[in-house]
């Protein structure tokens, strides 16, 4: 399974920022963890050239749910991170399908679950890309159109731009009311289709990935 935890900070902003460089000391060797990324976020709901220094996210892929539970219940670094934040949101995911690469691998590949009875109807979508340096101007000049398209889409309840490196390595995480909602946006929204065609025609990405998930559980944002 896959988990993503969002952390919001009102205080301890410098500490949270420094963890983008220091987290590897604590997260490299977690039992049952197959892949992880500590992610910064963009200001506003979507992509932005301006970071959101109040919000960060931890994405992890696990052998199974029990490994995540052990981490969540007993990891000291996570305890520290939570204690310094003001709000957090835990989302547990089960992969439906994925394509592409993230750092040369597909971390969600072959993780498709058997038919599950405890999933919600909601669908999470993760898109991620490393932008070719020579194509940065094309990417960032299209961001407003992209954000406007998804922000006005029917059926999207949450949308946040996330990333590893400002400007170059960008991703989005979104939650949709149903698979019908995301399919309608992906295949029928004219602005979205135009941007997708432009990315391919102009070869924006050095590496990209697209993944869909069932939402197993979503805690919503909770106060610490």
Strands, helices and their partners?
Layout: E1 2-8, H1 13-22, H2 24-27, E2 33-42, E3 51-62, H3 65-74, H4 76-84, E4 87-100, E5 123-131, H5 136-141, H6 143-151, E6 156-165, E7 169-176, H7 179-188, H8 190-202, E8 205-218, E9 222-223
Antiparallel strand pairs: 1-3, 1-4, 2-3, 2-6, 4-8, 4-9, 5-7, 5-8, 6-7
Spell the H/E element sequence.
EHHEEHHEEHHEEHHEE
**SS strand fraction:** 35-45%
Helix content: 25-40%
Most strands sheet? 8 strands, antiparallel, barrel
- Unreliable runs: none
Instruction: Determine the number of helices (DSSP H or I, runs of at least 4 residues).
Output: 8
Structural class: alpha+beta
Write down the Rg: 17 Å
What's the quaternary structure here? single chain
Task: Determine the N-to-C terminus distance.
Answer: 25 Å
Mean pLDDT: 86
Largest sheet, spatial ordering of strands: 1-3-2-6-7-5-8-4
The count of β-strands is 9
Shape: globular
Q: Could you describe the 3D structure shown?
A:
The protein is built from 8 helices and 9 strands. The chain has helices spanning 13-22, 24-27, 65-74, 76-84, 136-141, 143-151, 179-188, 190-202; strands spanning 2-8, 33-42, 51-62, 87-100, 123-131, 156-165, 169-176, 205-218, 222-223. An 8-stranded antiparallel beta barrel has the order 1-3-2-6-7-5-8-4. It is globular, with a radius of gyration of 17 Å. A hairpin with a 3-residue loop joins strand 6 and strand 7. The chain is an alpha+beta fold and 224 residues long.
């Amino acid at each position: 399974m896959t988990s993503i935890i969002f952390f919001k900070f009102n205080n301890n902003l410098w500490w949270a920022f420094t963890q983008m460089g220091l987290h590897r000391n604590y997260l490299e060797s977690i039992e049952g963890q197959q892949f992880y990324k500590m992610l910064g976020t963009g200001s506003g709901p979507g992509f932005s050239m301006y970071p959101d220094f109040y919000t960060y996210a931890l994405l992890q892929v696990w052998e199974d749910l029990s490994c995540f539970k052990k981490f969540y219940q007993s990891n000291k670094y996570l305890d520290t991170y939570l204690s310094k934040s003001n709000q957090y949101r835990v989302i547990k995911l089960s992969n439906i399908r994925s394509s592409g690469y993230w750092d040369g691998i597909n971390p969600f590949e072959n993780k498709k679950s058997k038919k599950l009875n405890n999933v919600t109807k909601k669908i999470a979508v993760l898109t991620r890309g490393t932008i070719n340096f020579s194509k940065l101007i094309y990417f960032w000049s299209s961001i407003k159109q992209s954000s406007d398209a998804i922000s006005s889409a029917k059926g999207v309840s949450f949308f946040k731009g996330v990333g590893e490196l400002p400007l170059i390595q960008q991703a989005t995480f979104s939650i949709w009311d149903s698979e019908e909602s995301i399919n309608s946006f992906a295949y029928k929204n004219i602005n979205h289709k135009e941007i997708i065609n432009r990315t391919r025609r102009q070869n924006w990405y050095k590496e990209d990935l697209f993944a869909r998930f069932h939402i197993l559980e979503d805690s919503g944002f909770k106060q610490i």
